[in-house]
TrEMBL record:
Keyword Metal-binding attributed: yes
Reaction(s) catalysed (UniProt annotation): isochorismate + 2-oxoglutarate + H(+) = 5-enolpyruvoyl-6-hydroxy-2-succinyl-cyclohex-3-ene-1-carboxylate + CO2
Protein name: 2-succinyl-5-enolpyruvyl-6-hydroxy-3-cyclohexene-1-carboxylate synthase
Thiamine pyrophosphate enzyme N-terminal TPP-binding domain residues: 11-124
InterPro entries: DHS-like_NAD/FAD-binding_dom, MenaQ_synth_MenD, MenD_middle, THDP-binding, Thiamin_PyroP_enz_TPP-bd_dom, TPP_enzyme_TPP-bd
UniProt xrefs under CDD domains: TPP_PYR_MenD, TPP_SHCHC_synthase
Length: 579
């Protein structure tokens, strides 16, 4: 068997096994050394291939597809620093538990560490941020079955347990062009490797009984649902809350603020309530059961740390893990969340339990909502930009949210809605890089997507817009332009004016319109609420790239939020006096 035949069968069997194991999308960045993989993916009819020129944006684009589909997506790039550009997205995928299969082409072993061009050390180059990694064998005679085994394992490793990225490094010798006309170039008589059978983790009956006893000892409990993407959790967790008679503090990324499920026990405004010390001490629960990651709210984090000794904490995770950054004493329960909710609810009285504790939280939530949404005739501001957007979001759409201030504004101003809207964000590492590309990845699957982000984050990933232009992917982007990093105005750094603007405020001073035009997008800069609503309506009615730029003021933004939080506290205190 000659080199070309060995190379061809190696890569065709590898790619065919990936597809058989469930791979549906691959994002390829151009390069020479990755030619065998790129051409083979393009030849295979069972996988959709996307080409992106910028590896950093390509990796975040793949992340977006995988986040939306909850299935592994492959990445292919050439050797050298091309692979290094994947690093930020791989870190995000690791912490946000998104399955990626990273395939990096490499020089053969004899060309490593000898000064060969475009050759760097790619072994374990992503460190501890991959679940599994392999430096593969060279394509040689009859080792295509080995290639199949590696492909099958790559899919299983990325999509089992806590999902995450895996890395396979491909050393490849020239010539690099496969011959797809060879007999049995593809599967031939070879049987694909079957997919592994997976079950769910269930809490033993004895432990389930003990947990029921603890939760039913007191009416003063809380369920907290942080960022998570399982659409089926909403029904199960709201049923459990109803039978326990406890509130649910629902993070905006919990998937509980939107949808048709029962929202009677949903508390959206807990962040604004817990900012007030006069409220904090009056709502300390006996226990907290948390599903999903830690909520966005910093007020919640500080609150549970402050009253740690008074609260029993339980964190539910499908697989072993330790997502509890508050440092409070915690009982980790490793069980399938839906199975656990259903098992608990089945052992409790049916119906909707109402308690004074639950009524208190509900009333405070209404008071907080009224104050946060109150229209006092303000000029454009970032909080009410979220309010208008949330009211206008199309049903069955994706709402992708940038980090820094946008996710916090959504936490404060996005209220419960019957619309079927999925809220997404890159909250693994919480970076502002790659947000445009990740949103485009979710949009590429055919879901109408609206992205909200700040001007600095938009600037960070302008290259990502190329994919929207090249593949005609419709996307509405709302850019909150306060000419800099708005979140720093809330931090102690803002008290040091001598260096604040240069080091933290970092005003861009850029006209975004020419860049948007370069990528074929429609740009609308708005300065009134009427213009904002009109621009949103127009963007939802077409299948183009639409960028709505909302001009706001950083200093006014801080004052606006603090005034609203003060009004919430005042409203709750006045209500208490009337009781």
């Amino acid at each position: 068997m000659g080199h070309v035949e060995a190379l061809t069968k190696y890569v065709t069997h590898f790619v065919d096994q990936l597809v058989f194991s469930g791979l549906e999308h691959v994002v390829i960045s151009p390069g020479s050394r990755s030619t065998p993989l790129a051409m083979t993916f393009a030849e295979h009819s069972g996988v959709t291939h996307w080409v992106h020129l910028d590896e950093r944006s390509a990796a975040f684009f793949a992340l977006g597809i995988a986040k939306q589909e909850q299935k592994p997506v492959a990445l292919v790039c050439t050797s050298g620093t091309a692979a290094a550009n994947y690093y930020p997205a791989i870190v995000e995928a690791y912490y946000s538990r998104v399955p990626l299969v990273v395939l990096t082409a490499d020089r053969p072993h004899e060309l490593r560490e000898v000064g060969a061009p475009q050759s760097i050390n790619q072994i374990r180059m992503f460190g501890t941020y991959t679940k599994w990694e392999q430096d593969l064998a060279l394509p040689e005679e009859e080792n295509y079955l080995y290639a199949r085994r590696q492909a099958a394992r790559a899919i299983e490793e990325s999509a089992s347990g806590h999902h995450g990225p895996v890395h396979l490094n491909f050393p490849l010798r020239e010539p690099l062009i496969p011959d797809f006309q060879l007999k049995d170039a593809w599967r031939g008589q070879t049987k694909p490797i079957p997919r592994a059978e997976k079950g769910v983790t269930v809490l033993p009956k004895g432990q389930l009984k003990s947990l029921i006893e603890r939760l039913t000892q007191s009416d003063k409990g809380l369920i907290v649902v942080g960022p998570q993407t399982n659409p089926e959790l909403a029904e199960a967790v709201t049923r459990l809350a109803s039978r326990l008679g406890v509130p649910i503090l629902a993070d905006p990324l919990s998937q509980l603020r939107t949808g048709s499920h029962d929202k009677r026990n949903i508390i959206e405004n807990y962040d604004s309530l817990l900012k007030a010390e006069t409220i904090q001490q009056d709502v300390v629960p006996d226990y907290i059961v948390r599903f999903g990651a830690m909520p966005v709210s910093k007020a919640y984090l500080k609150w549970i740390q402050k009253y740690e000794e008074a609260i029993d904490h339980f964190v539910i995770d499908d697989q072993p893990g330790y997502r509890e950054p508050s440092g409070v004493a915690t009982t980790f329960i490793w069980s399938d969340a839906i199975e656990l909710c259903n098992g608990l609810a089945l052992n409790m009285s049916k119906g909707n339990k109402e308690t004074p504790w639950l009524s208190k939280w509900k009333q405070m939530n209404v008071l907080a909502k009224n104050e946060m949404l109150r229209d006092s005739g303000e000029a454009l501001n970032e909080g009410h930009a979220v309010v208008h957007l949330s009211e206008m979001l199309p049903d069955h759409s994706n709402f992708f949210i940038g980090n820094s201030m946008p996710i916090r504004d959504v936490d404060s101003f996005f209220m419960a809605s019957p619309k079927e809207v999925q809220l997404l964000a890159n909250r693994g590492a919480n970076g502002i890089d790659g947000v445009v590309s990740t949103a485009l990845g979710t949009a590429s699957t055919g879901h109408r997507t609206i992205l909200l982000l700040g001007d600095i984050s938009f600037f960070h990933d302008l290259n990502g817009l190329w994919m929207a232009k090249n593949k005609q992917i419709p996307l509405t982007i709302v850019v909150i332009n306060n000419d800099g990093g708005g979140i720093f105005s809330y931090l102690p750094q803002s008290n040091h004016p001598d260096h604040f603007e240069e080091l933290f405020g970092t005003p861009l001073g850029l006209d975004l319109a020419p860049a948007i035009k370069m990528y074929g997008g429609k740009h609308t800069r708005v300065s009134t609420w009427e213009a904002y609503q009109k621009a949103l309506e127009e963007s939802f009615s077409n299948n183009e790239l639409n960028v709505v730029e909302v001009i706001t003021n950083r200093e006014e933004h801080v004052d606006f939020h603090r005034q609203r939080w003060s009004k919430v506290e005042q409203a709750v205190l006045e209500w208490r006096k009337r009781q």
